[in-house]
Structures are given as C-alpha cells and as structure tokens.
Input
Amino acid sequence: MKVVETQILEPETVQNRLCRGLSMTEVELVRFATNGYTNKEIGKQLFWSEIQVKRKMQDIYRKLHVTDRAHAVAIAIREGLI
Output
C-alpha cells in the first residue's frame, strides 16, 4: 500500500498553493498522482468513482495549462504546490 504524507500547512502556505487556482482537494489529487497512484487507486482512497477522479484530474490539467499527468506533477513540484 502506498502512503501519502500529509502535513499541517501554515496559512500563507495554503494561500500560495491556491494561487494557481487549485482547490485543496485538487492539490490532494496531485499529491496522489505524484506518489504514483492510478485514478482507480485514488478513487478507492477518496471513495470516488474512477470516472470522478478522471474528470477532476482533467480540471487540474486545464487549470495548470497542461495536457497530461506527468506535466501536472512536474508543474506542481516546480511551483511548490505539493
């Protein structure tokens, strides 16, 4: 089983993470993706369907102006979103 580390965020850190237009849920999804989770695995963790995860990931790609998961993860790391 994969483990996603969580941490308590200071208010200014939360603000910085939201500056790219991602919600906290979307940031959480990017964290799962960064840790190698598939849409199906993310869905199991969040009690969502795989389709719900796929749609939300597409929203994230749109907000980050990317076309795939690898680019979303790269931008999230570079921008300090995760």
